[in-house]
């Protein structure tokens, strides 16, 4: 925080959050409304670890389930079914069962990691005061995070499709061969930790290399990554989907085919790793994928 806000905190520890926002805004008029809300939250909570932990968890839940909601609505409107990649529409029971498992994972596997993030990240030099970085800096850092995470995801995801790693870790995520938004984080705690290390590790690696990263940038990154993950599992390929404007963007069609045929299309956000290393799910690999799934099921 700035020294002005720190001094303000020492004098105002008993007011409510809305009153804190009002006083912070009047005390430092150089802050925009979002920066004022941000600073007021830390002042109101009066515990940085608790403030970051609660805000991070709430952000994750609101963004994840909020992004799933439009696709659930599309499932109930026949007009949008023309954009469904596979014809299967998930039932309400399937969505509820999936959401319940995901929620349990969020509270048992992800919440502890989120809670310990603040002391580790701030020890590494992560800034969380106001004002925020410029949008030009944020944009460049976001591009770097997407590239770094996509690389981590490709290699770890590909590794999870081999032998015991698939059978004991990744198989759970492939329970739904026709994925839907809520299934984006339907995975074992071990897989959540492995792939999640890329989501958290990419910006922390960037921080270690440049010594410059803000928690707000981290939140923008996580929001966009959650959007990407839910979209990729949505089962819908709309004319306005991003992959129609950015040819190297993976999109739902890329990942949906991965769930359908089991092999290929391992990357998260981009297509270049699969293209360069010959792991795109071609028509020939579709047949191989079906055969591999049959063999695995028989072995089990």
From TrEMBL:
Residue ranges occupied by any Fatty acid hydroxylase domain in the UniProt entry: 143-279
Annotated protein name in UniProt: Fatty acid hydroxylase domain-containing protein
Cellular component terms per the entry's GO annotation: membrane
Pfam families, sorted: FA_hydroxylase (PF04116)
Listed GO biological process terms: lipid biosynthetic process
UniProt source species: Cylindrodendrum hubeiense
UniProt key word Membrane: yes
InterPro entries according to UniProt: Fatty_acid_hydroxylase, Sterol_Desaturase_Related
Record GO terms (molecular function): iron ion binding; oxidoreductase activity
Compartments, as annotated in UniProt: Membrane
Keywords: Membrane, Transmembrane, Transmembrane helix
Primary location group: membrane
The keyword 4Fe-4S appears for this protein: no
